[in-house]
From TrEMBL:
One of its GO terms (molecular function) is oxidoreductase activity. Coiled coil: none annotated. Pfam families: Pyr_redox_2. Residues 37-139 form the FAD/NAD(P)-binding domain. This is Pyridine nucleotide-disulphide oxidoreductase.
Amino acid sequence: MLGLSPLDYFHAELLTQWSPSVTLIATPNSGDSSPHMDLLTKAGVEVIHGEPARIAADGSTCTAVELVDGRSVPAEAVVVHPPIDYTSDIADDLGCVRLDDDAIEVSELGQTSVAGVYACGDIARRSSAPSGMHFIARAVSDGLNVGAVLNQELTFNDIQAKAAP
Ligand SMILES: Cc1cc2nc3c(=O)[nH]c(=O)nc-3n(C[C@H](O)[C@H](O)[C@H](O)COP(=O)(O)OP(=O)(O)OC[C@H]3O[C@@H](n4cnc5c(N)ncnc54)[C@H](O)[C@@H]3O)c2cc1C
């Protein structure tokens, strides 16, 4: 596994479900490895600090990750989890609060910090929810809930407006 963010210490632990031989190449972007070393060691994950230069292959078969300092780490497969970069700045223009991973902070019902503005999918999460839970099922489920709440709010506002003297 190429460690490109602190989340990849966790990903490397998960990969031990798939392979008895997992190596994490911790790049400088992985951050401090020391808080994770106890669990990684127990999980049998080898941690190598370095920067990847290229993936070596024999035909279409991956054989190793070569590091910029000349070391070569044998590998039958390389797992990469690119860090997420949210490209839309609509939420910032509207003044919505973001969390430390840049996700828009929402309530259980998808309400952002700005009244009348809702968010769902990859770009939004509750502060109590784990970061990086990007799945189609979650995005669809959140979208359904937020759509229903939003429709209810708009309908309620319309009724209130019509009923106003
Ligand atoms: C390589 C990869 C593999 C994945 N594999 C899986 C998988 O196997 N199973 C799984 O469950 N999930 C998988 N995911 C995650 C899944 O794709 C996402 O969780 C899901 O697509 C999130 O849906 P979304 O609607 O929140 O965001 P997106 O699908 O990213 O949709 C957001 C849309 O908004 C558009 N947009 C952005 N800015 C603007 C703007 N200013 N104006 C108008 N439109 C805008 C974008 O172009 C995009 O079409 C994978 C993700 C990646 C990147």
